[in-house]
Amino acid sequence: MAAALAVSSYTSVLPQVVQHHPAAAAAAAAAAAAQISAVSSAGHNVHLSPLNMASHSGMQAILPSAPPSFGFTQEQVACVCEVLQQGGNIERLARFLWSLPACEHLHKNESVLKAKAVVAFHRGNFRELYKLLESHTFSQHNHPKLQQLWLKAHYIEAEKLRGRPLGAVGKYRVRRKFPLPR
């Protein structure tokens, strides 16, 4: 099911490729989804290698805008991040983010930043989450999810500090003390 979701997501993100090479685009997306599935089932000894994925189904031949050293466009990376987030595969998402090259342009993509925030929250790395949310501007459609992460992280920290669950008044105090970033 994840592979089918990834295939449909890739084809919707890359309409220019689909128009000119629909079969090749579907095959490339299926190969990428299969590679991601293989990584998640193989465990921690195997890491997602975009260079290997680029060789599947002639992905390099149909994606001329893809950087030759990486094999994925920024849109494809964003699509994979969104698919893994929506599927709830946080560990797989973390491994995918770890495998990305150190490209500043890629790491400033909104989907990648949102994925990093989700991974930081699920790993309990709230400082990293706060830093990401405070230092970047996100589009309006991402605000509810990111605001929820911000508040939940502060609630969890306050509960740990107090040693008990927060009530309505406690949550209000946390919201007042830590307003949402602008």
Automatic annotation (TrEMBL):
Record-annotated Homeobox protein SIX1 N-terminal SD domain positions: 72-182
Q: Which domain of life is it from?
A: Eukaryota
Q: What GO terms fall under cellular component here?
A: nucleus; transcription regulator complex
- Record keywords, A-Z: DNA-binding, Homeobox, Nucleus
Tagged with keyword DNA-binding = yes
Q: Name one Pfam family in it.
A: SIX1_SD
Q: Which GO terms describe its molecular function?
A: DNA-binding transcription factor activity, RNA polymerase II-specific; RNA polymerase II cis-regulatory region sequence-specific DNA binding
Task: Supply the name of the protein.
Answer: Sine oculis homeobox homolog 1/2 protein
State the organism of origin. Answer: Botryllus schlosseri
